[in-house]
Amino acid sequence: MAEGNALVSNIGQLVTNDPARDGLLGVITDATVAVSDGHVVWVGSQEDLPGEWAFLPEIDCRGAAVVPGFVDAHTHLAFAGDRADEFGRRLRGESYEEIMAAGGGIQSTVSATRAASASDLLAVTIPRVKRMMRAGTTTVEIKSGYGLNAETELRLLGTIAAIDDTLPIDVVPTFLGAHTVPPGFDGDAYIDHLVTEVLPLCSPHAAFCDVFCDEGVFTVDQARRMLLAGREHGLGARLHANQLAASGGAQLAAELGAISADHLDHIDDTDMVALREAGTVAVLLPGVSFSMQLPQARGNELWDAGVTVALATDCNPGTSNIETMPFVIALACVEMGLSPERAVWSATRGGALALGLEDRGHILPGALGDFAVLAHPSYLHLAYRPDAPPVERVIKRGDLIPG
Amino acid sequence: MAEGNALVSNIGQLVTNDPARDGLLGVITDATVAVSDGHVVWVGSQEDLPGEWAFLPEIDCRGAAVVPGFVDAHTHLAFAGDRADEFGRRLRGESYEEIMAAGGGIQSTVSATRAASASDLLAVTIPRVKRMMRAGTTTVEIKSGYGLNAETELRLLGTIAAIDDTLPIDVVPTFLGAHTVPPGFDGDAYIDHLVTEVLPLCSPHAAFCDVFCDEGVFTVDQARRMLLAGREHGLGARLHANQLAASGGAQLAAELGAISADHLDHIDDTDMVALREAGTVAVLLPGVSFSMQLPQARGNELWDAGVTVALATDCNPGTSNIETMPFVIALACVEMGLSPERAVWSATRGGALALGLEDRGHILPGALGDFAVLAHPSYLHLAYRPDAPPVERVIKRGDLIPG
């Protein structure tokens, strides 16, 4: 990716997330940021700009608010088909069993994805990523997991790599072969198959290994085996945990020192302490609770317990057909009850930490030059305008992304 | 406004809302609609198109779903300023009293609006209406009510008329002088003032009179007096009713045969029967409940009781900074529990009936040629994509609206 140079100027309100500055968001008013070779080299008040940076190509923010580019740390956005029909059935009151009998559920996405060629997959995935980018996401994690066999999981990881090569966004690939148990296997046999046949082929193309550890999916023992095998192949551990029930996933994530435990809709105080002590980031996904008409996770209690909290879209066709981080911020505020400050931090620095990316999600010297320039004077508008895109321009590594 | 001619062709799924066809939405697959002089002249299966319409200029929908243009029957979108700061304070847990002490609430919008010139008001209002239009709204009701004096209420109604003249959208103007009691008056004295001084000046520029009848705002007796005076000046009656409490507004709307009663968050079975018997449309505003973190109105019970239900944005800077009907449809499904079919009908035909506009909100001969062309094969995508605009093109009176 190109490494641009820019003087991002006339920023009315700059969210730095710099802990050396005041408040959670480290806000500077009337700020300027200098970006050289894709990285921030200077941040401060407009009037203090050193002369050496004054001649960088200027991106004039005309008094608008600027936040770090969003880091979306949990998505399943590489898939074929859609599940609008299933969504409609659920809204009309049909049961889970009726929906499955009508061909719904994750297996319908697996079938559509297995039937899609690499170029088909890329063609449907690129527009999704472009919508995310236009809304301010500059780094995105993408999981495989709609293949459930070696051939299709590899094709998905190839699609994810192609997105990274094609678009001006950083992509973090995660291997989620253990997304669900496919027909013809039981859980143990499928984990055997993944560990011996699929993981060795897929691990060179992924940074993390993930498992859907929950009631009716994979057990704690199965998830442990998968994540340890992933670690032997060089993959960091992350985990779908405690979404459907108090199924032990959060404790497993802490036990393994996983970088993140995601969902966490059913956790208790002991789980929170374990996550904090392990330094595991809690990735919360308010779009799922919204879409599935369920209560939101206990975001403020996790914050208050000292757990690092990230927000992400969980973009997927079944339970969160949501692509944009500003909408996730609005949901986190309005439905989960986070303050705008906690929500904005979690969607930027929190997401970066959930992916182990120290160099982004904040704006200070050495960080990537990734920014979302709002159409408004304050970051509050991210929560205040749930259906009017509040992001006007996006800067990735110092370069303006073409609209 | 221009009256266009078009052959809207290759419609994969057409929502007609025609009661003579099957189901609530009267869906036709593989449909074509002929529009002449701005009005629908023929609707049917592609293959049955009479030769006389085959030479109209074609708008090829390429298999997408088409719904009637949305009718947004309740907005306050003519205002200056914003209330992002107040929104942030509320999310951080500040009390109503603290927010008022910090200069929040409706009076802050009244102050900003009084200070804005007619051209200022038009400049901030037009982008809002354009965003609504791009999302498929082809008819919008706009209320005055942030002036609370004759001069500013007139300026607001002038702005509303200018929107109607400037943009390819039909605007229905409502006089809402009785939006709240301004400083220096009590409720009775302010109604006196409105009836004797303001209404005679404003009524030539409005189609309806509205009152915020609720606990702490205007009483049932004050609202009755205002609406009857409005009727003497030729204005139809509509009413903000039972939003904050069971304050008698729904019964008043029924007693007066008002065309609509809006909000209705606090109603009982007796209110529902009264509305049904009076033929008063229930205008529900799920964006307010979402934004204010309150329970949604009992939409399905109103439907089941035989009341005509409409959905609208209530676009306003304090309690529903929401502009687009697809997002309202998504909220009505996910949060209020309406089926996608009830939600789509209420956002189209329901809205038309709430404004007394028989000629729109459905697609059959004689109706206006107003359509939202989706980017997807089914109307289900209106609910399924809360943050990805599902409307691709909008047709107003037979003419494509420029993107």
Structural account:
The structure is a homodimer of 403-residue chains. Helices cover 36% and strands 21% of the residues of chain A. Chain A has 403 residues and is an alpha/beta fold. Chain A has 2 domains: 6-68 and 362-400, Roll (Urease, subunit C, domain 1); 70-354, Metal-dependent hydrolases (TIM Barrel), CATH 3.20.20. In chain A, strands 1, 2, 3, 4, 5, 14, 15 and 16 form an 8-stranded mixed beta sheet that branches. In chain A, strands 6-7-8-9-10-11-12-13 form an 8-stranded parallel beta sheet. In chain A, α6 links the parallel β8 and β9 (208-213). The longest helix of chain A has 17 residues, at 118-134. The A-B interface holds A 82-85, 87-88, 91-93, 131, 135, 290-291, 293, 321-324, 326-327, 333-335, 337-341, 376, 378, 380-381, 383-388 and B 82-85, 87-88, 91-93, 131, 135, 290-291, 293, 321-324, 326-327, 333-335, 337-341, 376, 378, 380-381, 383-388.
**Whole-Å distance between the termini of chain A?**
17 Å
Count of the separate structural domains of chain A: 2
Give the tally of β-strands of chain A: 16
Biggest beta sheet attributes of chain A? 8 strands, mixed
> What class would the helix/strand composition of chain A place it in?
alpha/beta
**Radius of gyration computed on alpha carbons of chain A:** 21 Å
Calculate the mean pLDDT score of chain A and round it.
96
**Could you say what the CATH topology of the largest domain in chain A is called?**
TIM Barrel
The helix/strand series of chain A, from N terminus to C terminus, equals: EEEEEEHHHHEHEHEHEHEHEHHEHHEHEE
